[in-house]
């Protein structure tokens, strides 16, 4: 009788152990299957400034972000207004993104001041925040991923410096007065020019509009016909200025360095209106932004600032293997 | 309990269970290892096979693009209108040739897949790209381009992917095929180029799925990237492609150093390009991991089942063995009256049981036989003893007869002699053990008669036996020895006359005979030693009381026999307890009660 109980006890133990082991295997394998691998899924929302067909920069940022997301176990959502000027739209989108409760938000703030409270909201919600491209009035986020604008400005200046002499008269077309990118690029430019900084006679603001930039440049050249060197400090101001120079028949006579890249700018470069352009690396920016956000979301140490880089391109280097890819983004939509 | 556990491994069941568990575990684990290894190899081979085929197919499609470009080039180069247009002395009328050449180009572009541009350019600046309205990009600088220069020197060129800037305001990504247009008596060179939309190749690569992380890229023979999904990251230094053609060493499939990535290549003879498929093994292996988990599960369940079955089985085997051992233990302790339930299994164990039971039965039989023999032996011994007539008694009786004869007491001589004769005849003749009660009483009466004549003034006797029991059979010589005992030990030492009284009747579920004397009786001590074997002295008491008691026990069972009551100076009562013969069942007080009950 006692022995019989003993056996029952052993049997019960075996059955229990078997079931327990089977369940644990199931649980383990189930978990592994759900995740695909051992890494945890990280959900990141990217908020670029403005995505539309004519804007290459932000499309490239998104492309870079997607590359980074694909490499890691990241679920990426992109929320973007059509144009950079739609500050309110972006702010609403930030709130929308917070409601999605992602692990991290990568934000390229549309406005220097108005975006600040929304960025704060992100941090208050306990979501990791990475700032892309532009700084704001108040510091926010755990990391800033951007082009080093001082350096980019310096590149423009140091390219031009050998061509400068006592007769040089310099005009600058900027996008928005006081905006960080413009201020820093100008500072970098001045640092490179050194003593020739005094040759800067006029600074105009195109207010992120091709037409305004065009008109401002025309006005500047009319008022200061001696100007023989022009710097454009962003895409629309550079393109607008180049159009004005071309239309005034001064192409090739005025040395010009533009900023950012578009097909139009490349054509100006080919045709000799621009001597050089400095382009950012938007793909890198997007890629690095997501990479950093991923690290932050996984509670890893992240640097406070990450530089995404810039490159100076002249007519001769447009079609190098490397620069082709940078200047002529190849996308599925172009394939047709 | 603890002791049981420690000896469990040593027990038969433990041995079987433990070894079976080990065997099953070994079998399952080796099966598992082999299967997992096999399935990993299978998955790996399938991955290589699948990827190779995919890459090969892609390569073939790309080759077919290039081949179609080449045939287009051949047609254009051979075309006389083209030559006329390029090499005529006079500046040709563009409008005139438009019809002919543009028509041809249009047809060729429509026939070929994804042909972006077909163009001809001569050194002297004549050109026609696609149609007459397409303007050349004045800043294109095509003269500096590799595809132009190399073609002009007579090479057949297929470029890597690049941006084609020759058409004004267009910057498409293309692969360019270019060659020299032969002819031109004046020595001017001319180049034909055909641009294939790179999108047709890149989308082919992009659409090729090698898992979520896997990808396809193309290298030219110089090791430059033609297509890579991460090309821009690679150029900006954020990423590096670990694969280099040196890794191959003649193989078409090679693993990365950490074994995590599988590179499979296919080299195109047409273009000299190398197509590389990159597959991440962990993605491939996730399937085997699931398989592995399934194996673990199976192994655990199998071992559980095996153990359970083994325990049941061994229990089935060892339970009857343990039972058998228990029974043997009882037998070992001397109890042969155990019940042996044979298990209903029909196997060796039940054979063992049967043998053991037969053995026990045999032993029991032998013991019984032995006991019986011993009893018989004892009986006959005792009977023989009992049958002896005390020689003193005989001598004394004969002496008395002589005295009586001398005294002329003729009647008494006859009585005594006849009584003695009866006595002797009974003891000699009757070989039968059993006599009727009346015969036994007669025998006793003869004895008493003799004794009464010898002890004339000393002895009186009375016989009072229920007539109903007179015919029952009893073993002989049970009353007389007691009477003799009563006379020699009770009456003989009494002063005055003694009385011996024989009573017979029904007791409780038995026959009760009593020999009552009023002799000297026994002390309490004497009474307690009445059955001791001290009085084998036949002279004194013959075989006596003990013999009678034993014989009754032997014949009727231990519960029957003699009992004594005695009081010193007053007399002794000896009771003979005998079983109630069957013929009396249903009579008497006891049976009436029984009847009443029924």
Describe how the helices and strands are arranged.
The complex is a heterodimer of chains A (336) and B (598).
Chain A: H1 2-35, E1 42-47, H2 56-71, E2 74-78, H3 87-99, E3 104-107, H4 116-124, E4 128-132, E5 143-146, H5 149-160, E6 170-174, H6 180-193, E7 200-205, H7 210-223, E8 229-232, H8 235-247, E9 255-259, H9 263-270, E10 276-280, H10 282-297, E11 305-307, E12 310-314, H11 321-327
Parallel strand pairs in A: 1-2, 1-3, 3-4, 4-5, 5-11, 6-7, 6-8, 8-9, 9-10
Antiparallel strand pairs in A: 10-12
Helix pairs in contact in A: 2-10, 3-4, 5-6, 7-8
Chain B: H1 2-6, H2 12-78, H3 80-87, H4 94-111, E1 115-122, E2 127-129, H5 146-152, E3 157-163, E4 173-180, E5 190-197, H6 198-207, E6 215-219, E7 225-227, H7 231-235, E8 253-255, E9 261-267, E10 274-280, H8 281-332, H9 348-387, H10 391-406, H11 410-429, E11 434-436, H12 437-454, E12 459-465, E13 473-475, H13 480-491, E14 498-506, E15 510-517, H14 524-528, H15 538-541, H16 544-556, E16 561-567, E17 571-579, H17 588-597
Parallel strand pairs in B: 12-14
Antiparallel strand pairs in B: 1-2, 1-5, 3-4, 4-5, 6-7, 6-10, 8-9, 9-10, 11-13, 14-15, 15-17, 16-17
The CATH topology of the largest domain in chain A is Rossmann fold
What is the β-strand count of chain B?
17
> Structural class of the secondary elements of chain A?
alpha/beta
- Uncertain segments of chain A: 33-38, 332-336
CATH class of the largest domain in chain A: Alpha Beta
Distance between the termini of chain B: 53 Å
């Amino acid at each position: 009788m006692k022995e019989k109980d003993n056996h029952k006890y052993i049997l019960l133990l075996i059955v229990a152990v078997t079931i327990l082991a089977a369940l644990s295997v199931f649980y383990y394998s189930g978990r592994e299957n759900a995740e695909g691998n051992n890494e945890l899924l990280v959900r990141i929302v990217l908020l670029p400034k403005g995505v539309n067909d004519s804007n290459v920069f932000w499309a490239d940022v998104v492309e870079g972000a997607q590359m980074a997301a694909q490499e890691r176990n990241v679920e990426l959502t992109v929320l973007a207004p059509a144009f950079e000027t739609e500050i309110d739209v972006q702010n609403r989108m930030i709130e929308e993104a917070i409601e999605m409760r992602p692990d991290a938000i990568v934000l390229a703030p549309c406005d220097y001041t108005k975006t600040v409270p929304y960025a704060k909201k992100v941090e208050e919600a306990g979501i990791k925040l990475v700032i892309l491209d532009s700084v704001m009035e108040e510091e926010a986020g755990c990391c800033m991923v951007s082009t080093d604008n001082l350096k980019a400005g310096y590149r423009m200046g140091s390219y031009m410096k050998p061509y400068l002499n006592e007769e040089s008269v310099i005009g600058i077309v900027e996008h928005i007065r006081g905006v960080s990118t413009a201020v820093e690029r100008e500072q970098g430019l001045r640092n490179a020019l050194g003593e020739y900084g005094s040759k800067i006679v006029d600074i105009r603001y195109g207010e992120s509009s091709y037409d305004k930039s065009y008109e401002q440049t025309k006005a500047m050249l009319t008022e200061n016909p001696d100007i023989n060197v022009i710097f454009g400090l962003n895409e629309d101001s550079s393109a607008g200025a180049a159009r004005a120079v071309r239309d005034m028949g001064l192409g090739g006579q005025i040395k010009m360095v533009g900023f950012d890249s578009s097909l139009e700018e490349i054509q100006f470069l080919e045709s000799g209106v621009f001597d050089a352009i400095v382009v950012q690396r938007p793909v890198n920016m997007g890629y690095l932004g997501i990479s950093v956000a991923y690290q932050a979301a996984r509670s890893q140490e992240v640097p406070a600032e990450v530089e995404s880089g810039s490159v100076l391109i002249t007519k001769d280097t447009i079609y190098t293997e490397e620069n082709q890819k940078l200047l002529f983004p190849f996308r599925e939509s172009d394939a047709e | 309990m603890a002791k049981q556990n420690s000896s469990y491994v040593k027990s038969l069941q433990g041995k079987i269970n433990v070894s079976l568990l080990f065997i099953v575990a070994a079998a399952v684990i080796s099966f598992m290892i082999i299967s997992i290894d096999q399935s990993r190899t299978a998955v790996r081979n399938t991955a290589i096979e699948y990827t190779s085929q995919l890459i090969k197919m892609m390569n073939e499609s790309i080759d077919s693009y290039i081949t179609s470009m080449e045939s287009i080039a051949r047609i254009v180069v051979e075309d006389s209108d083209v030559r006329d247009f390029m090499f005529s002395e006079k500046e040709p009328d563009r409008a005139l040739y438009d019809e002919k050449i543009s028509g041809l180009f249009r047809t060729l572009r429509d026939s070929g897949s994804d042909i972006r541009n077909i163009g001809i350019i001569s050194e002297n600046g004549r050109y026609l790209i696609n149609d007459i309205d397409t303007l050349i990009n004045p800043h294109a600088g095509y003269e500096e381009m590799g595809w132009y220069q190399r073609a002009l020197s007579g090479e057949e060129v297929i470029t890597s992917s690049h941006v084609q800037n020759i058409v004004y305001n267009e910057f498409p990504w293309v692969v360019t095929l270019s060659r020299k247009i032969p002819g031109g008596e004046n020595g001017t060179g001319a180049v034909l180029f055909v641009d294939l939309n790179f999108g047709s190749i890149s989308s082919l690569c992009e659409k090729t799925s090698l898992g979520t992380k896997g990808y396809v890229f193309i290298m030219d023979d110089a090791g430059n990237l033609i297509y890579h999904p991460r090309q821009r990251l690679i150029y900006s230094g954020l990423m590096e492609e670990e694969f280099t053609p040196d890794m191959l060493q003649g193989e078409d499939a090679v693993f990365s150093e950490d074994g995590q990535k599988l590179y499979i290549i296919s080299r195109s003879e047409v273009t000299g390009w190398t197509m590389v498929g990159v597959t991440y093994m962990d993605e491939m292996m996730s399937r085997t991991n699931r398989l592995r988990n399934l194996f673990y599960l199976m192994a655990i369940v199998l071992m559980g089942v095996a153990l359970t079955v083994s325990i049941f089985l061994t229990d089935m085997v060892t339970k009857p063995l343990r039972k058998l051992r228990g029974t043997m233990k009882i037998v070992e302790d001397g109890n042969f009256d155990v019940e042996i339930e044979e298990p209903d299994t029909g196997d060796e164990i039940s054979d063992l049981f049967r043998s053991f039971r037969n053995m026990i039965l045999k032993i029991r039989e032998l013991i019984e036989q032995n006991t019986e023999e011993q009893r018989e032996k004892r009986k006959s011994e005792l009977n023989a003893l009992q049958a002896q007539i005390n020689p003193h008694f005989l001598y004394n009786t004969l002496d008395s007869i002589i005295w009586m004869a001398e005294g002329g007491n003729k009647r008494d001589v006859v009585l005594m002699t006849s009584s003695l004769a009866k006595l002797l005849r009974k003891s000699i003749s009757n070989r039968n053990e059993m006599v009727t009660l009346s015969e036994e009483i007669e025998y006793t009466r003869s004895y008493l008669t003799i004794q009464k004549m010898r002890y004339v003034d000393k002895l009186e006797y009375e016989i009072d036996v229920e007539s109903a029991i007179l015919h029952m059979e009893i073993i002989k010589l049970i009353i007389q020895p007691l009477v003799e005992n009563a006379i020699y030990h009770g009456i003989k030492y009494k002063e005055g006359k003694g009385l011996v009284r024989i009573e017979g009747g029904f007791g409780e579920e038995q026959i009760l005979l009593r020999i009552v004397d009023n002799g000297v009786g026994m002390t309490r001590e004497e009474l307690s030693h009445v059955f001791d074997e001290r009085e084998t002295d036949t002279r004194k008491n013959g075989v006596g009381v003990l013999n009678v008691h034993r014989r009754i026990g032997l014949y009727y069972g231990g519960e029957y026999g003699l009992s004594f009551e005695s009081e010193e100076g007053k007399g002794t009562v000896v009771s003979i307890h005998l079983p109630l013969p069957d013929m009396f069942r249903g009579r008497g007080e006891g049976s009436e009660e029984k009847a009443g009950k029924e």
